[in-house]
């Protein structure tokens, strides 16, 4: 069986397409042989020109390749930026606001989310809504909060507190080390506009975490 290369196969396809093309032309443009031949030639040339421009042109294939590479780059860097953005967001989730799951809970964390506290020095009441195993805050804040004599406190557990509005303390939240708070049992004394976002109720000893919060602090 003789070998047919790509060029020969293309010529055969074009010849085979002439017959249906001639039939179409004879139906719509008359039956004169000279007219049919002329229109057929024009049709073949137009088809060939369109085919070469769309399939055989090097510029077209270069453009298609560049488009594909562009989409691939956009996808890759888009995924990379998303991961970096997530990592940066986690890195800069300060003041016990990170959604990182606190599990397992270290034994040296004395208090739990939902417990009511009193600040030993300032006397305001509040409820714990988060904790970090050590202070997690911007470096400028830490330097202001802890002078050289208190640097060791940065490495102790810290708690985020919703401050009881009735105390008139002037701030609605606080981020304080463990040594500055003590627990009050059995007193539902916290009034705060964000309380229901964190808790669904009070069970007589502590506030009950909302489901989303329980996932972050499963052992509290």
UniProtKB/TrEMBL annotation:
The signal sequence is 1-21
Keywords attached to this Swiss-Prot or TrEMBL record, sorted alphabetically, are: Signal
GO MF term (any one): DNA binding
Keyword Membrane appears in the UniProt entry: no
Cited SMART domains: YccV-like
Hemimethylated DNA-binding domain location:
108-210
SUPFAM superfamilies per the UniProt record, alphabetical: YccV-like
- Give one Pfam family, short name only: YccV-like
Query: What's the protein name?
Result: FBX21 protein
The record's gene field reads: Fbxo21_1
């Amino acid at each position: 069986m003789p070998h047919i290369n790509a060029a020969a196969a293309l010529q055969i396809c074009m010849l085979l397409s002439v017959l249906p093309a001639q039939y179409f032309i004879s139906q719509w443009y008359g039956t004169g042989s000279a007219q049919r031949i002329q229109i057929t030639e024009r049709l073949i040339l137009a088809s060939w020109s369109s085919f070469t421009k769309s399939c055989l042109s090097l510029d077209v294939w270069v453009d298609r390749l560049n488009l594909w590479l562009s989409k691939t780059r956009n996808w890759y860097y888009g995924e990379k930026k998303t991961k970096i953005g997530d990592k940066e967001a986690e890195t800069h989730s300060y003041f016990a606001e990170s959604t990182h799951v606190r599990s397992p809970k270290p034994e040296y964390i004395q208090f739990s989310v939902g417990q009511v506290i009193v600040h030993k020095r300032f006397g305001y009441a509040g409820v714990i809504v988060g904790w970090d195993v050590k202070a997690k805050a911007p470096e400028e804040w830490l330097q202001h909060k802890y002078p050289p004599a208190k640097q060791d406190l940065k490495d102790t557990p810290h708690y985020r507190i919703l401050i009881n509005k009735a105390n008139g303390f002037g701030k609605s939240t606080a981020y304080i080390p463990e040594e500055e708070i003590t627990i009050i049992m059995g007193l539902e004394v916290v009034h705060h506009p964000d309380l229901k976002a964190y808790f669904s109720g009070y069970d007589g000893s502590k506030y009950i975490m909302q489901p989303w919060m329980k996932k972050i602090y499963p052992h509290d």
